[in-house]
Protein 1
Amino acid sequence: MVTRQENDKLARVEGEAPMGQMMREHYWLPFALSSQLVAGEPPTPVRLLGENFVAFRDSIGRVGFLDELCPHRRASLLLGRVEPDGLRCVYHGWKVSACGDVLEAPTQAVRAEQFASRVPVTHFPVAESGGLAWVWLGHGTTPPFPDLPFSGGHEINSFWCVSRVPCNWLQGVEGTIDSSHLGLLHQTWMGQSAKIEGYGNIGLALEQPPLYETESSACGMRAAALRRQEAGGAYVRITEYFIPLVTVVPVGRGQPDDGSMFVISPVDDTHHLLFYGYFSDRPTRPPQELGAAAPDYVADPHDFTGMRGGRAERWGQDRELMKAGHWTGFGRTLLEEDAAVQVSMGPLVDRSQEHLSASDAAVAHARRILLDALSTVESGGTPPGSARSASPVRMMNAREIFVEDGELWRDTVVARG
């Protein structure tokens, strides 16, 4: 259990909130799928940490990320015209490049070029990696982008979706590191996947409640969910959590170079972006858990969570589907189930009212790491996985293994590389 004061420190990101400041100064934040940023298309509205921005791609592929308001008279650049070399404000015609330079200031009649060169523009560096566009909102020199298991060579064999979920970012993150809900909340989807994908023993293993073993890592936390098997040994599902926003989990196919990734980006205190995807070292297709939404996902990778209505509508739950045998009544996608329960907690859950159990060990450990990271920053230090770290930042991939009785999962992971 955390106190209300700790809960606010963990969850709030707007204004001068310590968590928002730590994210801003130490971590790259995702804001869009790279495929959403198309040269010549209208500027994309972006809201992160309670602030509003615009993003656009110019004709040579550069992505501009700017304060939403024009540096001239503060009209919204969402109304702007995307031209080959920049974004032009429709109010007075000022044009700003993707690099943050004022290219034209038609309202300045004398020495216009000299005047334009001196106008400061609030803009931020962008990195495209792993199929996502990330922004650096911190001050000073832009640090290197981290080495993530779904970037580099995996980019050509990956799928991504993105949704805007109406609840706090930490509710989303905690769902990604909680393995204990898989066999219950997602039992209908797990059963269908076992039949279609041929998960075999892994599908059966997920039906068992896990015992957790967690440890801190260079980037945050490693959480092993152990499920004992009737025939002996255990199925171990090892999740990697790169604080504060990135989680990679096993996909249930036993392939060491596959993984599912969840990246949460805080919109403000009561909304977050959920980026979900799947990657592999070989050609693949949309994950089965996208279910009936898979065709829509391929054509339009935006809102796949299926949030239909609020509390009065039970967030779109289909009770007739439940009568027919579906566990939750959310039949569109597995991730619709995740979003529904997270939103049902309220816009920002009061964790001081919780009663944690043994299966919440990973969630409790993650909260402690985040609070410790905030304390480290407050004392002038560098938190785990910070882009400002002296050495390159590399996140390990998730793993799933079967271990024999007496065999330690840590030793097995090291031995198998």
Note: Residues 152-415 form a domain with the Naphthalene 1,2-dioxygenase Alpha Subunit; Chain A, domain 1 fold (CATH 3.90.380).
Protein 2
Amino acid sequence: MQQLSFLICAAALSLQAWSQVKVTEAWVRGTVPAQKSTGAFMTLNAERDVTLVEVRSEAAGRVEVHEMAMANNVMTMSAVPKLPLPAGKSVELKPGGYHLMMLELKQPLKAGDSVAITLVVEGRDGKRQDIQAVATVRPLGQ
């Protein structure tokens, strides 16, 4: 029995150590009625190299990672299938750079609301893990 308890604790600590992706400053831009998309922003810090491979939220039909970039003096936005999160380095999802696009919104998002977001990261070994985040909705003009 004692050995089983030890194995369960060791497994839990191993999973906890694997999942060290810290999410800070998570927020979502508020919307107006009938608006079907908005941006979500945050800072991600991973303790080991992982890759952001999927994002989900019950507030949206789908969520994609997007990148803003200048091309021939024109700002463009495009979806990226994966976003590397290098160990020990902050990856900022912000307006004008990498960010999350919440598409097919199920209802308007108003300032002060909270939005649950699930980030799926994948390690070099191919194992995936869900990281739960809660983002605060800020006024539309921010």
Note: The radius of gyration is 17 Å.
